[in-house]
Sequence to fold (329 residues):
Amino acid sequence: MYFESMKKTNYSFPSFPETEMQDIFSRVAFTEETKNENKNFKSYLVKEGYTPEKVAFDFYGDEKYWWLVLLSNNMIDPINDWVMSDREIESHLSNFLSGSSYYIYENLNVKPGDIIIKRDTSMIGDIDTDVYGIIDDYDSFLHKINVRFENSSFTQGDDFFIFRENDNGSEWNLITGFGKTGCYPPYCGSTACLPEGPNCPTAGIDYATIRKKDEIKNSLHHFQYVANQDHVDPYSNDYVTGLSCSAFGFQNICGLTSTVLYKYISDDGFLSADQIESIKTLSQFIDDNDKKRSIKLIASKLAPMIELEIKSLFRRNTHRGTLRYIEVK
Fold:
């Protein structure tokens, strides 16, 4: 019903004749008065495997009100905004959260599609061609490289090179930015300045070392305080709160030896492990998905009236001020 009620308009596409289609860019929302009236909405917990159509049938008695379920929760994308079923979560794990996460001290100009390959000085060209992977993404703030496709996985302590295809696709070149020197405070907010840390690489080298390895699904998402679940800045030490330390993510952290992130990567332990916990990617994903189960629905008695307003609005035969529940955004 939702799309059928839309007025048709002519669309022009390159290399194609002008085509008459539903005006899918027409979008409506509840008025502020409708949203602010608590009695207009009811809380609803989405059952396992329920789609918007099933929720509509369960709550309104008719699947045709699936669009009203989405409208009630300001959802535009029913694929990504809607809660995943257990089967969909398994598929997501297989397609997006499989593979390895590698942590490094350097902050490199890494891009998706780059090739990470093991350095081995006993091999020709110092390269072990049996151990390589395609970089899926790089989290510069957490110094984490995600590799979903690997010919053979790396282990903690392996040295590696990163190659990138040039613009014309004729060759692969080493990326730069590995060995750097500098003056590093041991954590964000510290007034001390240390020339280098115990694991800082030599300036000018063209490779780095894998300091820690996780499965992507078990990799770090963020740190938080156990007591109140507030996020902990990874560049603070355990006792420092309220600091904005994001700029520290854009440098080599080999000298930031007192930061929470350094201690996590180096397996050095937290100064107050009972106060801070590391939240894993899969755990956060499941938590975010579970939150999507709690939705709100416009009262069933209002559904027929809203349906009439939708039809009237899309057919352009209504006047300003005559709609009670919805408006064009």
In short: The chain is about 20% helix and 25% strand. The chain has two domains: 8-83+293-328, 95-285.
